[in-house]
Design goal:
It is a single chain. The protein is mainly α and about 220 residues long. About 30% of the residues are buried. Helices cover about 80% and strands about 0% of the residues. The protein has helices spanning about 15-50, 50-65, 70-80, 90-115, 120-125, 130-160, 175-185, 185-215, 220-225. α1 packs antiparallel against α6 (about 130-160) and α6 runs antiparallel to α8 (about 185-215).
Length: about 220
C-alpha cells in the first residue's frame, strides 16, 4: 500500500503560512518599486554620467550580475557586521533584493534607452522641453515600453529568488515551509503547496504588470495601430 496524502495536517499551521506569504509579498512589492526606481537612475547615469560615475556603476552592475544572489545576501547580512555595520535580517533581504533587481533592470533599461534615436531627444528640446522633460517623455517612457516584458520577467525572477532569504531566518514562504515540515514531517504536501503558491504569485505578478503596462503605454499602442 502506497503513501497517502493528507493536506489537512497543514491546517494547524495556517497562521505560519499566511505570515510567510505576507512577508514574501511585502518584500516583493517594496523591492520591485525601489529596485526599478534605482534602475532608472543607474541606467541614466551609465549613459549620461561622468566617466568615473559610469565606471563605478558599471562595476556594481557587473559584480551583481556575475555573483550568486545568495552570496550577495550573505555578504550584506554576515559580512558587513565585520566592518561594524549591523543589519537585521529583513533589512538585509530588502537591500540585497533591491540591489540585485536594480543591477539587472538597469542593463535592460539601458538597452531600451540606447535604442532611442538622438534626434528624438533633440526634437523634444526644440519643442521647448527641458533636458529632464525631454529625457522623461521622449527617452525614458518609450524605453520602458520597449523593455517592459523583460522587466516583468526580471521582477518575477527576483521574487522567486527571494526564497533564499529564509537562509538568514527571514520568515518568508520558504521559511514557513521548512518550519512546518520540521514539525509534521509531511514534506510532499508542504512543498507541493508552497510550489503552487509561488506559481500563483508569479502568474499574479505577470498579470498585474500587464494591466499596469496597458494603462501606462496605452497611447503608444494607439500610435502603433
Amino acid at each position: 500500500m502506497g503513501p497517502t496524502l493528507d493536506f489537512l495536517t497543514l491546517l494547524p499551521y495556517l497562521s505560519e503560512l499566511l505570515q510567510g506569504l505576507t512577508t514574501t509579498v511585502i518584500l516583493t512589492v517594496v523591492t520591485t518599486l525601489t529596485g526599478l526606481t534605482l534602475a532608472v537612475a543607474v541606467a541614466y547615469l551609465r549613459v549620461n554620467g561622468q566617466l568615473w560615475v559610469r565606471w563605478g556603476l558599471g562595476g556594481y552592475v557587473e559584480v551583481t550580475r556575475n555573483t550568486p544572489f545568495i552570496v550577495q545576501l550573505f555578504f550584506i547580512f554576515f559580512g558587513l557586521p565585520g566592518l561594524g555595520i549591523k543589519i537585521d535580517a529583513i533589512t538585509a533581504a530588502f537591500i540585497a533584493m533591491t540591489l540585485n533587481l536594480a543591477a539587472y533592470s538597469a542593463e535592460i533599461l539601458r538597452a531600451g534607452i540606447s535604442a532611442t534615436a538622438k534626434g528624438q531627444l533633440e526634437a523634444g528640446r526644440a519643442l521647448g522641453m527641458t533636458t529632464l522633460q525631454s529625457y522623461r517623455h521622449v527617452v525614458l517612457v518609450p524605453a520602458f515600453a520597449r523593455v517592459y516584458p523583460a522587466l516583468i520577467s526580471q521582477s518575477i525572477i527576483v521574487m522567486l529568488g527571494s526564497a533564499v532569504v529564509s537562509q538568514i531566518s527571514v520568515f518568508d514562504l520558504t521559511y514557513a515551509a521548512n518550519f512546518i515540515q520540521s514539525r509534521n514531517f509531511r514534506s510532499f504536501e508542504v512543498y507541493l503547496l508552497i510550489t503552487l503558491v509561488y506559481l500563483l504569485l508569479a502568474f499574479g505578478m505577470r498579470r498585474s504588470f500587464m494591466l499596469v503596462g496597458k494603462r501606462l503605454f496605452a497611447y503608444q499602442q494607439g500610435e502603433q495601430r
